[in-house]
Amino acid sequence: MALQITQKKGTYYLKGQINVMSKLVLITYFNQLFRKENKIVINIEEINAIDKQGLQALFFMMDKAEKSNKIFSIVGYGCKDIYDQFNQKVA
């Protein structure tokens, strides 16, 4: 399933897979938002798979937000692989 991005009440909902095929779409979409938004919240509850390239895209967006003094949050009970990788990076 291709990655779908929808927005509701300031939260961006991701549905599908974050992988090598959707990485560029994800980064491009959120790069545009970083130019005009100070706070970005993404919900990953409907992400059913993520690969290494997808994780790198999320890490890239986190780093970009931090360097730009923007708030970037990931919420929801999404793909367990995402949380496992974030916990390994922090530890």
Question: What's the layout of helices and strands?
Answer:
Layout: E1 4-8, E2 11-18, H1 23-36, E3 39-50, H2 52-67, E4 71-75, H3 80-90
Parallel strand pairs: 2-3, 3-4
Antiparallel strand pairs: 1-2
Helix pairs in contact: 1-2
Describe the protein in words.
By secondary structure, this protein is of the alpha/beta class. The chain is 45% helix and 33% strand. It is built from three helices and four strands; from the N terminus they run ββαβαβα. The protein has helices at 23-36, 52-67, 80-90, and strands at residues 4-8, 11-18, 39-50, 71-75. It has a four-stranded mixed sheet, covered by helices on one side. The longest helix has 16 residues, at 52-67. The protein is globular. The chain starts with a strand and ends with a helix. The relative contact order is 0.20. The model has no long low-confidence stretch (mean pLDDT 87).
What labels would you give this structure?
alpha/beta, four-stranded mixed sheet
Task: Write a brief structural summary.
With 91 residues, the chain is α/β, with parallel strands linked by helices. Helices cover 45% and strands 33% of the residues.
Rough outline: globular
Distance between the termini: 32 Å
Strand content: 25-35%
Q: Which residue ranges are poorly predicted, with pLDDT under 50 across at least 5 consecutive positions?
A: none
Order of helices and strands: EEHEHEH
The count of DSSP E runs of length 2 or more, i.e. the number of strands, is 4
Helix coverage percent of residues?
Answer: 40-55%
Provide the gyration radius in Å.
12 Å
Q: What number is the mean pLDDT? A: 87
Strand order of the largest sheet: 1-2-3-4
